[in-house]
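FAQ: What does the model actually see?

It sees only this:
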Amino acid sequence: MSPETVVLISLWLIATLFGLIYLFLRWNFNYWSYFKVNGPKPDIYFGNLPSAVTKKRHVIYDIWNIYDVYKHTDYFVGIFKNRTPQLMILNPQMAKQIYVKDFKHFSDNEASTMVDEKVDFLFGNNPFSSSGEKWKQRRSEIVPGLTLNRIKAMFPITLEICKRMNVFIEGQIKNPSLEGTNAKDLTSRFMADIIADCIMGIQSDSFRDSNSPLLVLREKMFQYSPVYSIIVGLLPVIHKLKKMRFITKEYETYFVGLMETAINIRKAGTETKVRCDFLNYMLQLQQKKNLTNMEVCAHSMTFLLDGFETVSSILAHTLLMLARYPLIQQKLRQEITDKLGKSRDFGIIHELPYLNACIHESLRIFPVDFASTKICTEPIELINKNGTTFKVPRGMIVIIPKYPIMMDDEYYPDACEFQPERFLEDNGGIKQYFNKGLYWCYGDGPRICLGVTFGFVQIKAALVEILTKFKVKPNPKTRNDYTFDPTYFLARLKGGIFLDFEAI
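And it is asked to produce this:
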């Protein structure tokens, strides 16, 4: 065989290989047209969500673009994540129906397909990532530990931690930095102490000690493989063959050791007073249901996963919005002064109307997560705006674009403006938006966020203490827009939040 022939055959084989890869990547791109479902044309490598891979911008902007193009013509559209077809719901009422009325058809979250408790026990037993009957069991075990009375009993601990936070802020004022105070660092210290003391029963002072229990290894808590994500997008069957670990083995070992120490101290009965906290409840549950220490650790980790990052983020972003809008900040401060004075009554703080409105409005602009991904667990027929129907098959991912809905000027006039008055009872309150499927900051239906009351109490207490003693201003280092960090899966302002505090 001549060298020329070898070259030609090699070129032919290479061309054939690339041709086969090309056909493989796009062979199912006619999926949605076959079912007569509208949708954008997918890119051969990235589908319709390129930012999920490239990270040039946050993937919510890809979702938002699709929402804006089709929201007036369709109740739902078909898209592709890489080469996997997914259904995107554009109509708020249909989205709410999926969460509530048709919950049994969409009872699982996408996270349940990516985790296995044999690989990642702590995350695998989180109610959010659990599926089937397991999520009901896990949720039913945790919820009684978060009654309003139990949260109220822990409130004095919250107030003590708030005082330590204010001392820390005073120190920042005495020794100012040109870039101000890192708000996310401040609120993370706050929540580290809240979870350590209220949930785990561990003494902690993160404002004086950066090596306090829950700040140690914080940056090593999660692991994420973009390569795995891309491969699964191209070959979804990989999910069934290999599950991904979300919590690193290093952090799991550390956290389990921390919890076992807390459990042993509590069981030893060295404390003179029985504390009505979450650990106390968990030890009662452990005895009642014969739970292992590992299962108690998993329940406690739920608060670290669902509460630490989320609540600290909400608090930091609310401080940012109040700093950007000084008149609203002063109005809120006045409400606190008029209705509370120097008292710190739990019931009054919990019900302050303008404080509630400010938090809801901040959450609308900076939600914890931008979109929900539900799994169709029982096939169901959905009717589109033009009257055509699509039977959602079992296992299909359904996307709820929560953020684009909450930032739609048709539902929230001047949506980019911080206007807490939207949520005051005189204007219809939060309920009018919630009932119409227009407010998605903590979910809806049977799987609504189980720690929302606990989280809100911590945020309110912190804001009351801060605004009573300080004026908050944005530091010039903080950007003025709402551009999100593309590398982070939750809402996080790109570049960080830096604030200046001024004593009143």
